[in-house]
C-alpha cells in the first residue's frame, strides 16, 4: 500500500491565475498580494502568474471559469471578502460564491482555491487579511499548490 504525498512538481512550469474581487479592496488587495508572494516562494515564475480583478465576490466563479478556459492555467486562487451587513444580501452572496466555486472545481477538474472571507465585521476581515495571525490569501495559495501536488502524486501512481 502506497501512502503519503511525494511532491514531484516542477513549479517553474505551473501556471496559476489569481482573481480578486474589487469590492472590499482594502481587504482583497492584501490577500491578493500575499497569495502572489506565496506562490512565488513555491517557485512559480512571475510570467506564469495571471492576476485579474472582478467587481465582487459574486462574480468570482465566472471570472475563475474564464481563467481556466482561456489562460491554460493549472489552477486559480479566488480572493474575496464578504462582510455581513444589515440585510440578507450577505447570505445570498456567500451561498452563491461557495456553490459556484465548488461546482467549478468539480466540473473543470482543476483546483480553484477558496480565498473568500465571510466575516461578521470589518475587524474580523482585517485580522484575516493581515500577517499577524496568517493571511487567508496566502493560505488559499498554499492550498492550491497542495492540490496541484496531490494531483501530480495521484497521476504518478498510475504509471
Radius of gyration, CA atoms, in whole angstroms: 16 Å
Number of strands: 4
Q: What count of structural domains?
A: 1
Mean pLDDT: 92
Percent of sequence in beta strands: 15-25%
What is the general shape? globular
| Class inferred from helices and paired strands | alpha/beta
Which fold does the CATH topology refer to? Rossmann fold
CATH architectural name: 3-Layer(aba) Sandwich
The first-level CATH class is given as Alpha Beta
Count of helical regions: 5
Ends apart, CA distance between termini: 15 Å
Helix content: 40-55%
Main β-sheet description: 4 strands, parallel
Q: Within the largest sheet, what's the order of strands?
A: 2-1-3-4
What is the structure about, briefly put?
The protein has a single domain (14-151), classed as Rossmann fold, CATH 3.40.50.960. It is 49% helix and 18% strand. The protein is built from five helices and four strands.
Characterise this structure.
The protein is an alpha/beta fold and 159 residues long. 49% of the residues lie in helices and 18% in strands. It contains 5 helices and 4 strands; from the N terminus they run E-H-E-H-E-H-E-H-H. Strands 2-1-3-4 form a 4-stranded parallel sheet, sandwiched between helices. Helix 1 (25-42) runs parallel beside helix 5 and helix 2 packs parallel to helix 3 (89-108). The chain is globular. The two termini are 15 Å apart.
Amino acid at each position: 500500500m502506497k501512502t503519503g504525498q511525494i511532491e514531484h512538481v516542477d513549479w517553474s512550469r505551473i501556471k496559476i491565475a489569481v482573481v480578486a474581487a474589487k469590492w472590499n479592496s482594502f481587504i482583497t488587495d492584501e490577500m491578493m498580494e500575499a497569495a502572489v508572494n506565496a506562490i512565488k516562494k513555491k517557485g512559480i515564475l512571475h510570467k506564469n502568474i495571471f492576476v485579474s480583478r472582478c467587481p465582487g465576490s459574486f462574480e468570482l466563479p465566472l471570472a475563475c471559469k474564464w481563467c481556466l478556459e482561456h489562460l491554460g492555467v493549472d489552477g486559480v486562487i479566488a480572493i474575496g471578502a464578504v462582510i455581513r451587513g444589515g440585510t440578507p444580501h450577505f447570505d445570498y452572496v456567500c451561498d452563491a460564491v461557495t456553490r459556484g466555486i465548488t461546482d467549478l472545481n468539480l466540473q473543470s477538474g482543476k483546483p480553484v482555491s477558496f480565498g473568500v472571507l465571510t466575516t461578521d465585521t470589518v475587524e474580523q476581515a482585517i485580522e484575516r487579511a493581515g500577517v499577524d495571525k496568517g493571511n487567508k490569501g496566502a493560505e488559499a495559495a498554499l492550498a492550491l499548490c497542495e492540490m496541484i501536488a496531490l494531483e501530480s502524486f495521484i497521476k504518478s501512481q498510475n504509471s
